[in-house]
């Protein structure tokens, strides 16, 4: 893997992190704003998510302990992996960006700010890039 690609992946992840934070700022400060492309299935709506993925209730202390441990494990995996390819590096950087963005919400607000309504879920860009990162890691490990 070229160093140029790694820089591009970090810049992309950083941009997505900042964009997610900007969207969360807008959602938090405009909680009554709703916009639907297909009401009520697809659109924008503020949701204060006190749980984890899919709103599953998990005590905050567990989230505050597990998130850094998971990120540390990913960092160790990245540093020890001898066969880093583009899928692996992009996947790791996307997971880091999304997880840190959601962790910032938890530290500041004790919730994660979600804003994209998709069917019966409300999610944020950080959630989406975490899922994309995991898919890239799974794809990399399949090859």
UniProtKB/TrEMBL annotation:
Belongs to the peptidase A8 family. This protein specifically catalyzes the removal of signal peptides from prolipoproteins. One of its GO terms (biological process) is proteolysis. It comes from the Bacteria. This is Lipoprotein signal peptidase. It is found in: Cell membrane. Pathway: Protein modification; lipoprotein biosynthesis (signal peptide cleavage). It catalyses: Release of signal peptides from bacterial membrane prolipoproteins. Hydrolyzes -Xaa-Yaa-Zaa-|-(S,diacylglyceryl)Cys-, in which Xaa is hydrophobic (preferably Leu), and Yaa (Ala or Ser) and Zaa (Gly or Ala) have small, neutral side chains. One of its GO terms (cellular component) is plasma membrane. It is a multi-pass membrane protein. Keywords: Aspartyl protease, Cell membrane, Hydrolase, Membrane, Protease, Transmembrane, Transmembrane helix. It is an enzyme of class 3 (hydrolase).
């Amino acid at each position: 893997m070229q160093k140029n690609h790694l820089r591009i992946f970090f810049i992309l992840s950083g941009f997505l992190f900042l964009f997610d934070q900007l969207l969360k700022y807008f959602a938090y400060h405009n909680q009554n704003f709703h916009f639907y492309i297909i009401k009520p299935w697809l659109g924008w709506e503020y949701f204060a998510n006190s749980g984890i993925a899919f709103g599953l209730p998990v005590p905050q202390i567990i989230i505050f302990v597990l998130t850094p441990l998971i990120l540390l494990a990913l960092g160790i995996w990245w540093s020890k992996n001898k066969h880093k390819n583009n899928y692996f590096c992009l996947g790791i950087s996307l997971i880091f960006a999304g997880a840190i963005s959601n962790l910032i919400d938890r530290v500041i607000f004790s919730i994660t700010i979600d804003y994209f309504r998709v069917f019966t879920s409300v999610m944020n860009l950080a959630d989406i890039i975490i899922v994309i990162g995991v898919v890239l890691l799974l794809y990399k490990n399949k090859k």
